[in-house]
Design goal:
Blueprint: E1 6-11, E2 17-19, E3 41-42, E4 52-71, E5 78-83, E6 91-92, E7 123-143, E8 153-158, E9 160-163, E10 175-178, E11 183-186, E12 192-195, E13 201-211, H1 212-226, E14 232-235, H2 244-247, E15 248-256, E16 260-263, E17 266-275
Antiparallel strand pairs: 1-9, 1-14, 2-4, 3-8, 4-7, 4-8, 5-6, 5-7, 10-13, 11-12, 13-17, 14-15, 15-17, 16-17
């Protein structure tokens, strides 16, 4: 599987029909189709029969990745995704750390599954297919029976178009940072007061050399459809399992550089994406 960045956009799930499982009437599956992440879908408990999501898209769609979240899933959860042509089998949601890299004090030392302590965001279920899969009907099963909350809660289901460039973004002029969203005030005496809010992640990256045919096909389509108002789920490095939660998030574009012809046969462009909170 290529470890090049994946950009998901044009969410097919929003026009689909969601069913299955046991979800609260006040927090139904249809909330996964709303952009406000505070409007969540919540299961009645954590029994696997109640944490199933059946998806019927408006028509067959070709997917490279599926993202469900942000949620309260625990690091030890497992999932399974079926389509008309594929079955992932049961997959451990988190990537095990290499032996002896977790400290003795880590609560998950014996399991090897790193803890997730970012309560401001929650975790995403992210599945990346080796090769794109085409289907109209999908089923997502989740097994997280040890979840201390005794329910599962998710804000968004993203099953979109994708662009995985054939040449990855450049090593220079890229970076993951946090945008300051805190509120501040200064008293007459000069004392400063702060009110913390969740600081959205910002990822800046650029492509120095993309085949011109790809740039004006996939790159043009991405910029046209995603625009500055559309959601983009970015997976910076699909192969970095230990850091995929840190480097993948739902976003919108702050900037999109022109599709430029750099040298003969190759073009360039760059983006800055800001996390949706």
């Amino acid at each position: 599987m290529s470890d090049n960045i994946i950009l998901l956009y044009g969410n097919h799930a929003d026009a689909g029909v969601l069913s299955g499982g046991g979800w609260l009437p006040t927090n139904p599956l249809s909330n996964l189709q709303k952009r406000a992440l505070r409007r969540v879908a919540q299961s009645v408990d954590v029994q696997p029969s109640n944490t199933i999501i059946n998806v019927q898209l408006a028509g067959p769609a070709t997917l490279k990745s599926i993202a469900l979240g942000p949620g309260n899933i625990s690091p030890g959860y497992s999932y399974r995704i079926n389509s008309e042509t594929t079955d992932t089998g049961w997959v451990l949601g988190a990537t095990r750390a290499e032996w002896n890299t977790l400290t003795w004090e880590d609560p998950n030392y014996w399991t090897g599954i790193p803890s997730w302590d970012d309560a401001e965001r929650g975790m995403w279920l992210i599945h990346v297919y080796e090769t794109p899969v085409t289907s109209m009907y999908w089923q997502i099963e989740i097994d997280d029976q040890a979840n201390p909350a005794n329910f599962l809660r998710f804000g968004r289901l993203f099953m979109g178009r994708f662009w995985q460039p054939s040449i990855n973004y450049g090593f220079s002029n890229n970076g993951l940072s946090f945008k300051d969203a805190s509120l501040k005030s200064t008293t007459l005496a000069g004392n400063k007061h702060f009110w913390r809010r969740t600081n959205p992640r910002v990822f800046r990256f650029g492509f120095d050399y993309i085949p011109e045919a790809e740039l004006f096909d996939k790159g043009y389509e991405f910029q046209r459809i995603a625009g500055y108002d559309g959601e983009v789920f970015v997976i910076a490095d699909p192969g970095d399992g230990l850091n995929i939660q840190k480097r993948s998030f739902l976003s919108t574009a702050n900037t999109m550089d022109p599709l430029s012809q750099a040298v003969f046969g190759y073009g360039s462009t760059a983006f800055e994406l800001e996390e949706v909170i």
